[in-house]
Write a structure and sequence with these properties.
199 residues, 10 strands
């Protein structure tokens, strides 16, 4: 009986909200059915909300597709593995995922004021790269590469972490994205190259 009361209460709340959103009582709506509504009044709040969600999803899809298909700019790889994020930078050949790539853990560095293509992978279980201030949340799935086109970011530091539970110590899977000037980015890559050449 409690479930029935709860269902009835939910229905009444939704019905009241829908009536309020339309701005007319059911009696007024019945009297005005003969008159076609003005063009701007044909949609409902639900239609508008659905449109916004679909457009956002389409934009996210297009951002990923651009990196996967025809992105000619800077690409940075991100690999999730329990319980650390590894960032992969293209080496001297300027091609990602080759033998001369440079890596670091728990830190990502990228130049400011340019768009950067991220290629996101996982080596073990499902992870999710989440950079709240940059409005990025993208899954890292084993055996699959996901793509994201980072918008131009201002100078500064942006915390990131795994937002998909991936086992014990999941909460320690964090890092810091450093958005720096182009010269500092080049110096950072040089220092990584020097470290990788040490015996």
């Amino acid at each position: 009986m409690t479930f029935l009361k709860f269902t009835l209460a939910c229905f009444l709340i939704v019905f009241s909200l829908a009536t309020f959103a339309c701005g007319k009582s059911p009696e007024e709506q019945r009297h005005n059915e003969a008159e076609p509504p003005a063009k701007e009044e044909t949609g409902t709040v639900g239609d508008e909300f659905s449109r916004i969600l679909l457009e956002g999803g389409q934009e996210a899809f297009e951002r990923g597709r651009r990196v996967a298909v025809d992105w000619q700019g800077l690409k940075i790889g991100v690999i999730g593995r329990r319980h650390v994020w590894t960032t992969v930078y293209p080496g001297e050949d300027n091609i990602l995922w080759t033998d001369d790539d440079l890596t670091e853990e728990g830190r990502m560095t990228m130049p400011a004021d340019i768009e950067v293509g991220l290629e996101i992978k996982s080596d073990d279980v499902i992870h999710a790269l989440f950079i709240p201030r940059a409005r990025v949340k993208k899954d890292a799935v084993p055996g699959r590469t996901n793509y994201w086109l980072m918008q131009k970011l201002a100078l500064g530091e942006y915390d990131y972490f795994c937002s998909e539970y991936c086992g014990q110590d999941h909460s320690e899977m964090t890092g810091v994205l450093h958005v720096v000037k182009q010269e500092e980015y080049a110096q950072h890559l040089e220092s990584l190259a020097e470290k990788s050449n040490l015996p």
